[in-house]
Amino acid sequence: MSGIKIAVLLSGGGTNLQSLIDAIELGKIPGQISVIISNKKEAFGLKRGEKHGIETMVLDKNTYGCKEKRDKVLVETLLEKKIDLIVLAGYLAILSSNVIEKYKNRIINIHPSLIPSFCGDGYYGEKVHQAVLQRGVKVTGATVHFVNEITDGGPIILQETVAVAIDDDVKTLQEKVLEIEHKILPLAVKLFAEDRLEVVENRVKIH
């Protein structure tokens, strides 16, 4: 298969991974997922990948020990697979500065809020939606961005909004935002694969 080679890193269920798999199989993204890597062996996203014949890998403490060793194995794997793009799809581990520098503007993350709101250290998963509801905002959404050394601080590629209803709870809000995530993440990967993204200072220009 021609196109870019993608590594997806995840820690959980992998619904965003599934959105990428579906888009690739429909021919919407010129590329392939070469490997799925998780820091949790029980992550359901690994099973999703196996179902589609994608190579999977568990990169956890029990298997590889200290963080330095895991980082070394991660870089070796990415280089061996000749990865063009790293997608963080609910990956709850910190990438080393070495990985971030080596793959500058080639790592993208999906975050369940409209950055710069409800982002940064401590804002992940349901915690984001809890904060949104506690603050009482009327609009939230999702953001796809490039990854840099600042948590959720890299250049923004795409954002889309959803309304927060008065009767929303964490579960219903999460479902709304996930629907948006499943739309804009494959689109961002498509734009990258088609070489249509250009980073100018801290802004992304879409060609």
TrEMBL record:
Species for this entry: Natronincola ferrireducens
Record protein name field: Phosphoribosylglycinamide formyltransferase
Residue numbers binding N(1)-(5-phospho-beta-D-ribosyl)glycinamide: G14, T15, N16
Reaction it catalyzes: N(1)-(5-phospho-beta-D-ribosyl)glycinamide + (6R)-10-formyltetrahydrofolate = N(2)-formyl-N(1)-(5-phospho-beta-D-ribosyl)glycinamide + (6S)-5,6,7,8-tetrahydrofolate + H(+)
Alphabetized HAMAP family for the sequence: PurN
Gene encoding the protein: purN
Pfam short name (any one): Formyl_trans_N
Biological role: Catalyzes the transfer of a formyl group from 10-formyltetrahydrofolate to 5-phospho-ribosyl-glycinamide (GAR), producing 5-phospho-ribosyl-N-formylglycinamide (FGAR) and tetrahydrofolate.
Active-site positions on this chain: H111
Pathway: Purine metabolism; IMP biosynthesis via de novo pathway; N(2)-formyl-N(1)-(5-phospho-D-ribosyl)glycinamide from N(1)-(5-phospho-D-ribosyl)glycinamide (10-formyl THF route): step 1/1
Class of this enzyme: transferase
GO biological process, alphabetically ordered: 'de novo' IMP biosynthetic process
